[in-house]
Amino acid sequence: MLKNYMHKRERHYAMLNNNRVVQPFGWGTEFVSEHANGGDPREALCEHSRHVVANSDEYFAAPEGIEFSLEKRLYPSAASMNAGELKKPVVQTEIPFLSWQSAVKTPSVENNTAIATYFPHENKRAAVVILPHWNAKAGTYFDLAKYFNKVGLSALRLTLPYHEERMPPELERADHLVAPNVGRSLQSIRQSIADTRACVSWLKDQGYEKVGIVGTSIGSCVAFMAFVHDMRIDAAVFNHVSGYMADVVWHGLSTYHVRESFGDNLTLEELREYWLPVSPMAYMDKLAAQPWRPQRYIYTKYDLSFPVDLSIDTMKALRKASIPHSEISLPCGHYTLGEKPWVYLAGYKIIRYLHQHLR
Length: 359
Hints:
By secondary structure, the protein is of the alpha/beta class. The chain has helices at 2-16, 41-54, 56-59, 83-86, 142-150, 182-205, 218-229, 245-251, 256-262, 268-274, 284-288, 308-320, 342-358; strands at 69-75, 93-101, 113-119, 126-131, 154-159, 210-216, 233-239, 295-300, 326-330. It has one domain: 3-Layer(aba) Sandwich (Rossmann fold), CATH 3.40.50. The termini are far apart. The model has no long low-confidence stretch (mean pLDDT 95).
């Protein structure tokens, strides 16, 4: 009975967003190689995948020589709101914003300026990088950041690529982050990881001794990739879990329009191989070989967007690799995790864990 109820709620929330567009399919080899020469895109993407997984430390290296700018800006900004929101009265407040030029350059000029919202605590011992979910609106996770402040932790909430101020004018949704363009999605996730590592670098430059990370949904995937490739991250919480990005997009409720765009151009097995460089399952052995760091994985039993069998498979992979971890399973779904009481329970599990391991 609970399963049926939760699935009904999940479908209801998913369909509230009626601006999903079936975009044209594209191989996008030009987004992953400067020397795309019109050859077989399948072969090019396979070769790219093999090369990245074998050389991931180089591919996901922390950006160097970044010039950061920290200034107070009015929130919410006009650039972060859509036309409907701008028609309503807006109350703005000043908040510290960090900006820099992303190390990964994309064709969208707006997207190349990375932005993060800073919530400092007077005690600069520890801070948490917050990575939102796909299509998160301006201001989401600000409450989480403020709760981190209440327990003595600073927070830095990253605006993901193609979101808010980073969204090019032709988009209503962040469709370039998870797209039916195979190469563009790879570039977008790589950019997300580069921007995340830049956040860690900035926090370290400010004198923070410990840095944690929490990511939700696609933010969880990005957080995992950053965690595996950046030993400066001392503890992590991954909120919604899957080992393969391709399987989430192929089977997930939230990405049905992306799946429709793929059509018959490729199979799930092919997509899984092409997107392996940005899939946690590719780096389990790498994580297992590292000195252990605290890590918590939260998933929901009735998730239709990150289907629960994918989460369970990931937990099995962690155990098979003998990676000690904290595992939390909540009796709700992907969207319903944002409802009471689940949102409070998840928030407690996130804040308590990071506070415990970063203090």
